[in-house]
Amino acid sequence: MLPQFQSSSAFRINSHHLAIGIGIFAIGLFKKTVIADGIAVYANPDFNGADAGSSPDFLVAWSAALAYTFQIYFDFSGYSDMALGLARMFGIVLPLNFYSPYKACSISEFWRRWHMTLSRFLRDYIYIPLGGNQKGSRNRYLFLMTTMLLGGLWHGAGWNFFIWGALHGSYLAINHIWRQYSLQFTYLKLNKMVSWLLIMLVVVIAWVFFRANTFDGAMNIIQGMAGMNEWCGITYCNLGSLRRNGRNFKIVGCYWFPRWCYPIG
């Protein structure tokens, strides 16, 4: 990427680059201001309520978690697209940062698709210098955990980011262990649909801790997702208020979620 800055064509206004850049920037702006901010209206009240001590039922907890899962993707992806678009206007081609991460069928594939520039930075400047996979399996898992903990703290010095990093470090370690044993025992291999559902489950759970402001709030959401609170607070009598407060939007979103995310082919 750096040689581009030394090129004579860099930072020169070119109609071709300008048109492409404006298009990419517009897509990113739409993702952020329309989709991400629009979804936030549905995710924030439930997370704020959980932080305040409320116990969401099964449907509310899952709809909040899935809403935030979409929100953070379109938020990060939107900002990245705007940066890509601005750079392209001046003839600079920045690397792609997101590549349909919610279509991943393994957690390692997820990190090859999610925030790819950060993933490469963590790999090249933390994981590999620590020793990578060259110092035995136990050290490899320790290095993975250390790398992801630092990756979590990169987002902010808070307990929620620490737990999020710890979860993803654990996910990656389990992924490598499972893959190692599945080579010996073929019955451990999961089909594509099951793998995708499992990865989406653990990713959504991790996002709950990433979003919640308090540990108790995160656990209230997790307990609701596990059905430990009410299974569903929705009855025929209050469907009218359900529609009025917009909860039906999230229910529809939950229905379309697998259709939008599931990998094709």
From TrEMBL:
Pathway assigned in UniProt: Glycan biosynthesis; alginate biosynthesis
Pfam families to which the protein is assigned, alphabetical: MBOAT
Transmembrane intervals: 141-162, 193-210
Protein name, entry field: Probable alginate O-acetylase AlgI
Signal peptide: none
Lineage of origin: Bacteria, Pseudomonadati, Pseudomonadota, Gammaproteobacteria, Oceanospirillales
Alphabetical GO biological process terms: alginic acid biosynthetic process
Organism: Neptunomonas qingdaonensis
Domain of life according to the entry: Bacteria
Presence of keyword Disulfide bond: no
Keyword presence, tRNA-binding: no
